Amino acid sequence: MMAPIVKSRVLIPMEIYADFVCPWCFITKRALEKVMAKFTSKHPEVEFEVTWRPYYVTAMFTGKVNRRDFVLKALGSQSEADALMERIQGAADEQGMSITWNGNFGPMQNAHKLVALALRRHGVAVQARVVERLFHDQFVLGKDIFDDDWLVTVGREAAGLDEDDVRLELADQDAGKRLDREVDQAREIKGIDAVPHVIVLDRFKVGGYQEKEVYEDLFNKIFMERIL
User: Where do the TM regions start and end (predicted)?
Assistant: First the structure.
């Protein structure tokens, strides 16, 4: 009897640059998860390894601002703001999501500190849980996720992190400087000037919100041509 053919494991690393004030980043996360799940169901030897990287859409924030007011101020007219929010909700509907504009935006550096801490302590799977919780709590529940007490809660519940460790990380100025350098390098070295920005295999770049077919075609190309 012939031995069964065992297919070798294929690892596809991916980096996603995102900021938590960006609803397009949240929608892209959900869309990508569906595409990856569909792809791995056809090709079980494939494994995606997703690492989340920081970016600042609103680096100028020093305090909180109402989300609806921010969109209105950024676009300059109520009609344009309404049109943008309608486009975002339309894309979210395709993923079975509902986006709320209740609550406030604020400085996101500490949220990125928490994500980086989860990655260092527990790896990409736990980091992904923290990322999902931050996006979901902001854009579905309307939470002010820049609030340190809320970040401590997320760190404990989503990553099993010790509360004191999280507070030390959030207060660590050196941790903030490391994030700032990483964001600067993303702009200067990798040419990232907007999010979401997905980099696959450290060579294929997909910028902005894209339809699922873009990722489906890319993954198929990588797999069929063995660009690994």
Answer: none
CATH numeric code, 10-225: 3.40.30.10
Which residue matches tokens 């344009």? Answer: 80
Q: Sketch the domain layout of the chain as residue ranges.
A: 10-225
115 contacts 130 by C-beta, under 8 angstroms? yes
Pairing of strands 65-66, 104-105: antiparallel
H helix count then E strand count, the chain: 9, 6
Q: Which two tokens stand for residue 136?
A: 């979901």
- Taking the C-alpha atoms of residue 200 and residue 12, their distance in angstroms, rounded to an integer, is 7
Which of 186, 151, 181 lies closest to 166 in space, CA to CA? 151
pLDDT given for residue 8 in this prediction: 77
Tell me how far the alpha carbon of residue 193 is from its chain's centroid. Answer: 15
Mean pLDDT of 192-214: 94
pLDDT tier for residue 7 given thresholds of 50, 70 and 90:
low
Q: Which residue has the tokens 């849980």?
A: 129
Quote the tokens at residue 5: 């053919």
CB distance 129 to 159 below 8 Å: yes
pLDDT at residue 46 tops 90: yes
